[in-house]
Design goal:
The chain is mainly α. It contains 27 helices and no strands. The radius of gyration is 29 Å and the shape is globular.
Length: 465
Amino acid sequence: MSDPYTSLATFLEQTDRFNVPLSTAFEPYLNSIRASGDAPAGALTAVWPGIMSVLQIQTLPAETARVLVDEVIDPIIASNNLSWSEVEAVVGSEQVLLGTVRADTHDKIRQAALSLLSCFRFSGTQDDRNKFVVDSVVDLISVEKLSEGLIARVERTIRKFLKAYDQSRTFIINRLCTIRKQPVNISAIVESRIQELTLVILRDTADQGIDDISEQLILYSVQTDDMLEELVIIQFYESLLELNLPPQIFHLCKPAYKEIAVIYRSSDSVAIERSSAARALGLLALNRPGLFEELDSELKIVQGLIIRDEIDQIILTLIPGDQVARKNPEIVRSFPVSSGSLINILCNFVRYSSCRDLLQINSQKLLRLPVPELLKLCKDLASSVGGASLLISMPAIMDIILTKTGKSGYELTRLRGDIIDSLADVDREVTGLYWAGRIREAKTTGIWGRSDTNEAFADIMDTNG
């Protein structure tokens, strides 16, 4: 056994209820453990008896308990040198661990037991035992008063099961469906946990498709009498949009996204409901434009957008600008280009040629912007050939990008460096000989945070611009 764990075990043996250690007393041992790398086999055997003894001291400070589990036990498990046979020999079987998780004892002891259960060795010849372990862990989410720390470890354990045992996905899906269709209505808290584990399955085993995903785990009624529950469900549908899933799953969810659109448009919805719904719709337009088009053709969402409505601004920041230019061209044509407070929407618009044509951008308008907002806009313009051509047509703006004037600040330096990198990749026929030379000179000297050796440079840490 390596010395750091032996030393910690000796220290723990000297601890009792009359000599309760503070978390700082463990620092020398923790530093040695961190420096030693992965915990070797046998580390749990050395420290577990002492840790259990200390965790059962009623007056133990919460931070000391956290340190023992999070910074000693967890790294031992993460090292992959801990075998299930060692866990069984030192702590006990899966029944013992599950009993500890359910027991009325110190929450950190319960968390440690659950984490150790993640080391369970699945057997190809013991499906009933495997199913019992998986089902028992999933069932924990239905215990409403379970601490957030334990719920986080449930998710972590489920992730390890999914990697270690292919059949666990089927067991988890079936168990979640069983929990959801209980005769007694489940609470919003339990429902949110089901949604989170559904996302874990879809995210961590995406290669296995969605054919086995039950509609029970995907379809929810969004509009409820409980606003918190409503917000959690909207968040679930927003999270789905961030995953690379087959299109059919989103068409299955079309009724839910329609409900979200109704919440967004309803005068009875409060600001937080409308804001959450607006973000989900903006992401839907960005990531699943076909489905958004179907909803928009029916509900006329884009045509109803108003630039000065703070909730509408959330959608306008996310939705592809070409959709806005096509369906609500006036909102683009009349956009206040010189308004720094709306810069995120403007940056979104200028990525699309149809919007740039309607915006009628010129130097006079851009020079009214504060420098940080101006450079942020220029970065998006420089990312396309059409936008770069527009920048080149405005010498006053190019001078601001290329001319070094006193304090530049780290963020502004990096922005200018990004703009110059993009412009340097534009064909000389677009930039012209004069600007091509100045851009090349700025890139070569690296004065704006870049050089040919890719070394970052900032002359002063000042973000005032």
